[in-house]
Write a structure and sequence with these properties.
267 residues; alpha/beta; 7-stranded mixed sheet; N-FG_amidohydro; HutG_amidohyd; N-formylglutamate deformylase
Length: 267
């Protein structure tokens, strides 16, 4: 079995989390996916490459498994992130368009959930938690920047077009206001892009679980519309280097500013 996570340790106070870029699906699980599920459409395509090299000595924790195996950014208890709104669960039954991803009768049961929590979800979060503790021990503070992307048009989940930059801090609860403001300042000045703060995406379970500013751990989620860095938001989901290079300038600015802010956040 593929190791459920990859780590690159650094000395920066900033940690990058990648819960949704993995495409590994064990054969016994892949066999249960239908043709639609096997497309793996709801991947955060190329996001770990988009951020690569933007901040020296940044720590990276990346899940290698696909979210259809189990979603590393969902509450392990199965509690919805957005009660009353369409979303996908701990092990999704459908894709982001509401279409089935499992063969008839092959969807996950409670035994599957328990096994995948043990084998994938828990190891990823143990690794992430350990890195947060290591970084906090060095600096007295840690900033988790959780990296995401999603198609810009998904009627099942939201109306109209998603903004290019979607910042989530659970209404300011998961990080110091200086982190939120620094990020917002960059995206507001980014010419040709639009943005939202705590709009449709307010931060997933990772951001909400770890982001406890009173303990010195701050968390912020960035959900990018895939139109900002892909050639097309459909198979083969190819990376657009020209779009990405333009976007990376602003992402680098955000990360550098967060690193500079960190010393002032010590409790």
């Amino acid at each position: 079995m593929t190791t459920p996570y990859e780590i690159r340790q650094g000395t920066s106070p900033v940690i990058l989390g990648f819960p949704h870029t993995g495409t590994s699906v064990p054969a016994e699980i892949a066999d249960r996916l239908n043709d639609n599920g096997r497309i793996l459409a709801d991947t955060d395509w190329h996001i770990h490459h988009l951020y690569d090299g933007l901040l020296d000595d940044v720590t990276v924790v990346r899940a290698t498994f696909h979210r259809y195996v189990i979603d590393a950014n969902r509450d392990p208890a199965g509690v919805s992130l957005y009660p009353g709104q369409n979303t996908t669960g701990l092990i999704p039954e459908t894709d982001f368009d509401g279409k089935a991803i499992w063969k008839d009768g092959q969807g996950p049961d409670q035994a599957d959930i328990a096994a995948r929590l043990r084998d994938f979800h828990a190891p990823y979060h143990a690794a992430l938690a350990a890195e947060i503790e290591r970084v906090r021990a060095i600096h007295g503070v840690a900033i988790l920047y959780d990296c995401h992307s999603i198609r810009s048009h998904i009627p099942f989940l939201f109306e109209g077009k998603l903004p290019d930059f979607n910042i989530g801090t659970d209404m300011g609860k998961t990080c110091d206001s200086a982190i939120e403001q620094a990020t917002l300042t960059v995206v507001e000045a980014a010419e040709g892009y639009d943005r939202a703060l705590n709009g449709r995406f307010k931060g997933g379970w990772t951001t909400r679980h770890y982001g406890k500013p009173e303990t010195g751990v701050h968390a912020i989620q960035m959900e990018l519309a895939q139109s900002t860095h892909l050639q097309t938001e459909a198979p083969p989901f190819a990376y657009d280097a020209a779009k990405a290079d333009r976007l990376r300038v602003h992402l680098k600015d955000i990360l550098v500013r967060l690193e500079q802010i960190a010393p002032g956040l010590k409790r």
